[in-house]
Amino acid sequence: MNLAHKFIENADNFPEKVFLMSKEDGSYKNYTWKDIQERVFKLASFLIQKGFTDRKKVSILSNNRKEWFIGDLAILCSNCVTVPIYQTSTSGQCEYILKDADVKAILVENQEQYEKIKDFKFINLIVTFEKVAVNDERVFYIEDIYRFIEPDDGKIRNITKNIKEDDLLTLIYTSGTTGFPKGVYLTHSNILHNVIYGPEYVPINENDVFLSHLPLSHSLERTVGQFAPMFHCCAIAYAEKIDTIGENLKEVKPTVFVSVPRVYEKILEKVIEKVREASFIKRKLFYSAKETAEKYAEHLSYNKAFSYFDKLKYNFFEKKIYSKLREAVFGGRMRIMVSGGAKLPYEIGLFYNGIGITLVEGYGLTETSPVICVNPYNAYKIGTVGKPLQKVEVKIAEDGELLVKGPNVFKGYHNKPEENKLAFRDGWFCTGDIGEMDNEGYIKITDRKKDLIVTSGGKNIPPQAIENILKEDPFISEVMVYGDGKKFITALIVPNFEALYKWAEERGLKFSSNEELVKNERIIRLIQHRIEKRSEFLARYEKVKKFVLLPKDFSMEEGEITPTLKLRRKIITEKYKDLLEKLYEE
After folding, report:
1. Residue 215's closest CA among 1, 44, 370?
2. How far from the centroid of its chain's Cα atoms is residue 178's Cα?
3. Rounded to whole angstroms, how far apart are CA atoms 521 and 528?
4. Do residues 344 and 264 touch, judged by C-beta distance below 8 A?
5. Which of 148, 325, 363, 433 could form a disulfide with 385 if both were Cys (CB 3.0 to 4.6 A apart)?
6. Which of 191, 168, 172 is nearest to 182 (CA)?
């Protein structure tokens, strides 16, 4: 079995069923399996005509949209290998990946993306998803390909039948939190393992509708948000952009949503902002409902006490608040939400599961296709990343590092023989994450091995654990803890400006900019108090002694975070080095 052949099989069996949904001219338009198959066959035939077959590498540089998936499938159906590039990548980053992977053909979204790669003379073929104003004989507009190419269906079907499970499907470059991106070899069998065994824990079926918004260039969205629904005949709708997720959720009314913790946090923050503007009685009612939901979630997850009176309250809030929230925020049909890419704050997990939407946290890396483990839909434990998928072995090394074996583990890094040696220990893949496993096999990730801070006093401190505790505060949006080799821990803190504006206005504080606001002594004291409150249960050496408030979020464009919203600590530290070092001056 291979994923290209599975696509053709499903298209043959369900030609009139809706497969992809795209926002066009103000509303969502449906495309059937037959519609998509016709486009895939035409683009694949075009690639073959241009000499792109026999395992050649072809890149995609685009935001999420139906053409991304059509392009991916066409590349696979022409017996080529997809090399995705993040849409936010700079021209220099694109050049590094394209040269390293020996790419000669690329599919780009629009004029903006074309401008990044237009001067690369080693690229022989460029296909654009939107019309671009160029005089470049390498460029072909995808709609022209659809219009003028006669597909060779028989040839494509024959090609896909002969693709083996162990053939390379994609070369995905890691997001580079620790240095230059590395190309990760993933085969059809690697990703097939995830899409076949993942639904044993997170069940999906042909009636499900996914809303896709995470970058398809990342393995989480590509496997869990693209290939899994394709394999199981689900429909996929594409969000317009990150800022329209709220609107798109209500329009599409999806049943499945895959995202990262920060998005779930922001959705809840929006809800709470609206609650703050409501009357005193409504605010009181909401916070009582929230407390009851969290208590119920802990009851479901850990069998904690939930009295008869609690049940009565829960039933009341279900009618008055929870059901209305599910309808107003998520469209009313949401069954399952999956969180990955970073640690999900405990309180966020409690809230969503408590109001009747199952939010399960999972864990993995690009090198593991990406899923290693996930919480079972009907037996989740909030605060853990669940159990390993079937056929995946996990063990904890003596130093606490999580080690993995299984059919989901990658075949190696491209052009990195030394990195390949370091990646494995006695046949086990070294994840670089510190974890622990309970007596039921549920795993908890506590930190990154390489991110551990060692103070001048010799104390080992896991920064992510502290950051996650502080980010649970409604006035704190982002945190980066600092202090390797120092006497004590400090931090860069990005406030939640929406909450801060409200607080400042209620107290008559005058400000004209974020820069002015974060320098205000009352604001600094407020955040200091919030940090102290959140840190009560931390060891003395783990507490943030001093901090700097930043006037803006960490930015993908400035290289401070990866496309999956992980901190690039080295870059952030270099950028704010002077501010951080001042915190240690006597």
Report:
1. 370
2. 18
3. 10
4. yes
5. 363
6. 172
Q: Where do the domains of the chain lie, and which CATH numbers do they carry?
A: 3-163 (3.40.50.12780), 200-411+427-448 (3.40.50.12780), 453-582 (3.30.300.30)
Q: What region, left, alpha or beta, does residue 120 occupy, with left being phi > 0 and alpha being psi -120 to 50 degrees?
A: beta
CA 368, 370, 376, 381: dihedral to nearest 10 degrees?
90
What's the length of the chain? 586
| 491 within 8 A of 499, measured Cβ to Cβ | no
Mean of the per-residue pLDDT values for the chain?
A: 94
The model's confidence at residue 327, banded by pLDDT at 50, 70 and 90, is: very high
Of 272, 247, 262, 274, which is closest to residue 329 (Cα–Cα)?
A: 247
pLDDT of residue 341: 83
> 360 burial class (0-12, 13-18, 19+ CB within 10 angstroms)?
buried
Q: What is the pLDDT of residue 314?
A: 98
Measured at the CA of 191, the angle between CA 208 and CA 372, to 5 degrees, comes to 90
Q: Which two tokens stand for residue 30?
A: 């449906």
What pLDDT is stored for residue 586 in this prediction? 63
At residue 176, the pLDDT reads: 54
What value, to the nearest 5°, has the Cα angle with vertex 466 and ends 461 and 468?
Answer: 140
> What would you report as the CA-atom Rg of the chain, rounded to the nearest whole angstrom?
25
Which residues neighbour 481 within 8 Å (Cβ) at sequence distance 6 or greater? 453, 461, 463, 466, 467, 489, 490, 491, 544
Q: Which residues contact 17 (CB under 8 A, 6 or more apart)?
A: 32, 33, 206, 233, 235
Confidence bin at 467 (pLDDT 50/70/90): very high
